[in-house]
Amino acid sequence: MSNVQSKKRDLSIIQINDTQSIIISCDAVGGIGLKTYDSIKLSPDLVAYYTARVALMEILSVGASLVTLVDTLSVEMEPTGEQMIKGIRRILDELQLDQSTLNGSTEDLVP
Fold first, then answer.
1. How does strand 102-105 pair with strand 69-72?
2. What is the pLDDT of residues 15-64, one digit of tens each?
3. pTM of model > 0.90
4. How far is the CA of 76 from the CAs of 20, 33, 56, 70, in angstroms?
5. How far apart are CA 95 and CA 60, in angstroms?
6. Which pairing describes strands 4-8 and 21-25: parallel, antiparallel, or unpaired?
């Protein structure tokens, strides 16, 4: 069977055989945080908490299991990235999901 991809809301569903699929979820946020030009002021840990929560709930709502959670943080590691990772770890704890599934990247090369 060839891989068949479909979409449902923010989910990409890749059928890998007759009984298994890879489910990919995503969410993004912009303009919310504590940066100068953010239009809504909110702490980085809460921004990341709720953004990760949306993507995780999408995965869990279709009965899938979390394999990995990748954060692509377009901020510096210190202090904003660290705060965002703290928020992501909090939602993983609340949902009793494995912390080792978390991977990601921050942006320290461009101010």
1. parallel
2. 998 999 999 999 999 999 999 999 999 999 999 999 999 999 999 999 99
3. no
4. 37, 13, 24, 16
5. 10
6. unpaired
